[in-house]
Amino acid sequence: MSAFNRLQNWHQTKTGLLVFALLELGLAYVFASWAIDAGNLLDYLCTFILLVGGVQNLIRLLGRSIGKNR
Fold first, then answer.
1. Which one in 15, 28, 50, 53 has a CA-CA gap of 20 to 30 Å to 43?
2. In angstroms, how far is CA 1 from the centroid of its own chain?
3. What does the domain layout of the chain look like in residue ranges?
4. pTM, to two decimals
């Protein structure tokens, strides 16, 4: 099994979803700070993409925690 497949399988676990959500939300915060300081549209775009990814992982985690196993 390749490293990518192992990472992908781990990402589907509750722990993996939590780690990825926190990582993406943390990076979104950093990019938002840079975007506010510099006014760079690329930083705003990265912030938006990371924010959507982090929220998506949190929603998946909540779904798994409540009992929906998808």
1. 15
2. 24
3. 3-66
4. 0.83
